[in-house]
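Q: Predict the assembly, please.
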Amino acid sequence: MQLSYEKSVPGRRAIVLDPLDVPEAALPAALCRKEAAALPELGELDVVRHFTRLSKLNFGIDSHFYPLGSCTMKYNPKLAEAVAALAGFAHLHPHLSTSPAFWAHCQGAFELLYETEQWLAEIAGMKEVTLQPIAGAHGELTGTLLMAAYHRDRGSKKDTILIPDSAHGTNPASAAIAGFKVIEIPSHEDGTLRLDSVKAAMSDTVAGIMMTCPNTHGLFEPAVAEIADLMHAHDALVYYDGANLNAIMGIARPGDLGFDVMHYNLHKTFATPHGMGGPGSGPVGVGERLAPYLPGPRVVKGGDGYELRAPEKSIGRVAAFFGNFMMALRAYAYMCHLGKEGLRQASENAVLNANYIFARLKHAYEPAFDLPFMHECVFTAAPQAKKGVRALDIAKALLDRGFHAPTVYFPLTVKESLMIEPTETESRETLDEFCDAMLDIAEAVDSDPESLHEAPKTTPVGRLDEVRAARQLNCAC
Amino acid sequence: MFPKEMKYTKDHEWVREDDGVYTVGITSFAAEQLGDVTYVELPEIGAEVEQGDSAAAVESVKAASDVYAPVGGRVCETNHELEAAPELVNQDPYEQGWFFKLEGVSPAQLKSLLDADAYEKYVGEQAH
Amino acid sequence: MTWVPSTAAERDAMLSVIGAKTIDDLFASVPASLRAKSWALPAGISEMAVRARLEKWAARNAGGVTSFLGGGAYDHFIPAAVDALTSRSEFYTAYTPYQPECSQGTLQSIYEYQSAICRLTGLDYANASLYDGGTAVFEATTMAVRLTRRNRVVCHGSLNPVYRAMLETHIANLDLELEDGESPEGAACVIVQNPGFRGDVEDFTALAERCHEEGALLVMSFYPISLGILKSPGEMGVDIAVAEGQCLGVPLNFGGPWLGVMATRKEHVRKMPGRIAAATEDAQGRRGFVLTLQAREQHIRREKAMSNICSNEALCALRALVYLTLLGKEGLREVARHCHSKAEYLKKRLSFAQILNDGPTFNEFAVRLPRNAEEVAAELITRGFLAGLPLASLGAGEPNDLLIAVTERRTREELDAFAHALEEVCS
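A: Predicted assembly structure:
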């Protein structure tokens, strides 16, 4: 499709302002740009058609099943979009929170923030929650900065964080950006983290461990409580990556498991839209140990309604205001509608759906592990790869059959990995259609491998030359 | 399979001595593992590196890796051809695809490295 | 209340395929001792009830006021087509474009967005966006540290104090020194903002030259709308330009989501954090777009990544792109011209107050009132005006100082009425 810049016609306009109703003012020429920025010149219908056509080149949840492991691509309720359009929230200026003179005029927003934090705290068994972190990885960074502040405050020089090899790449990246050294802990061959492996890496320089539970293999960590005890015995902290919280709502809570700090992904567990890769939201919850260090300011209940206060040893601001407020609003609408039964039912059905897919595919694809999977199942396409069909080929063949691909080549611990997370909002028919497509592809591995190498054929473009892209680096026109 | 006149590291670098100047690159095995190389980051001329320091970096579409100095020394030359043609690392890893040259190297450091046969054996073990 | 479609009968049928009797059998790997100790949440309520509650809360926030409040976020007009196009679910319910063949809409829009930012800033490469303007300053700082291998960071007085506070929090555990001033000697970078937080417009060309002589980089936080007329970061010799992109068609959203903009020169692109889209071709020679330079990112580089960032504010970047495409070359200049002219008009109407800016300003300026600015602002909000930002509340001025912003949305009538009300309240 043509670029908007290629469609530009000199002099064409879409949006025109009323004539200036005050005298025209001018800045000194030395402070002004030489030429206007060469933005496209188009009419409004040109623009509308351009972006409408672009949108049709995408798969989205509303049109396609999106079983991306670790991404929790559940339905994004229209209710959340409707409340996010309320002008009283969408057009509210955040500097109303800066001066107490304005606080009486943003009480509705403060109440929303306060209530959302209460819900999230109870769901995960945390003492307090901050909504400031803007994304999951930003939550990890905030969490590791809190861990650093805790140890600094106690005069300890702990500078290392332990991270399992199955962790998301953001875990070691966040720990490193926060100034920590990282030691990678190998998973046991059954896909879980063993207490012995953690013990082997334990020392007085260890500030804490970052864990995902269920982990990225889709397995509940049997030693999670013992690992937390080991850490606490060394005055080290335990971080919970909330990527897979959708597996355990109402079943288990990170706070009860011994975690001191965690992040939530509102765009996964709480159904806020992924928006092509953002905005997300990564609130951080903490237990007793880290509550005094939380970012500020925080909404608290005062005598005359809600007001702002910074915790006594606050690390400061990680966001300019309250993080991605509109994502918190959407998540609040989601939680309120589901309530205690609905949230638990969401996790139950997420696990049911994943196990149903697993049951239907386990004879055609090799399970990566023998332990029971929770909300996602992981296969290895290594046997198919020996026949010349790689996980990537399977992913592309699914696109031709009308499904988004599962996560491939992650976790890094599984060769040719296919990681499937259906979520609870998919119906049995959709799961069956997907499984039928996967079984069809499994057959084609033997009967017609060439067709898989050529996939996808039904998409607007075929496989793209990524080497050429990286070498030429044409990133703007 | 691997040229005899070089020494190798377990991180898959090679080093070759010519009149007191030590040329460094990555092995054909490393280049294959990376896939099509898209970018090479080279050290600055004059930089002092110790044995085992990260001295350069190499990227493909799906992977990135540090290149460690097999021996310590001072960087005296770098291969600017790679900036425009990183594919040389895949096409000709031992000649045109070299990364940098070191001088002021203590030859004793070579003793800790693998010879071609030992490296071939090591690579064979890695494959399993 | 639920968004789960399965009926009880369907669940039973699925369980029998799995070979389990009850749903609880599927949770056998979670031992009883580790089960939730509490689940004290309210029962679910209907969609109708959720909406009613949130409509009530929304009504308790300032609505229908005439705004002169800025300080980094601005009340610009958003054309209807921005909402209409970006609320298409093919955009907002899609994931990160890791499968490019079914994500060309996303990828082409990122490429067009990057192009718009490059054209706006006069720089060579832009990323697909960062979280917001404040975290973009942090990312630019660590990028400058990587490029120069120096650990001293200099903050110019023009920088938004909120961004400075965020930077301090983010680098608290790193081996970096943060100092105030503008001396580039031995520094990784000097961070400036244009227009400055108090509205001053400057030409930082000479500072850029001094930075380069000293081997430091110049980082600039800019205001995208102002680039409709102001000298661009590229023209001044800036190395890394960052911005809060909220002003480009993103609602105020009580602080988020917003849009972190970042652009840089060609020689620094490999150290730039964040996603980048690039043009390429498929086997048939058709143009297409992919994410590129991913080997710098966390999912491959892990603890050695350029940044831990794993998302971009793609939907906000799309809003900015649609906004800039609708305005076009002439429209952006027009918006900037209106903002500046209206601010100058208001300035002249405030003769009872002292203008604190010595030199030119764009659309925001600081005044010293005859009265406490917080008291004045509290009174004016009851008269339908958000008067501006009392600077003392951020430690950025005296108790009587107020920061006033004017956008293209303000009419001459509103400007006159506001000047009149402000004078009344002050006298």
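The domain at 80-321 of chain C is CATH 3.40.640.10 (Aspartate Aminotransferase; domain 2). Chain C has a mean pLDDT of 97.
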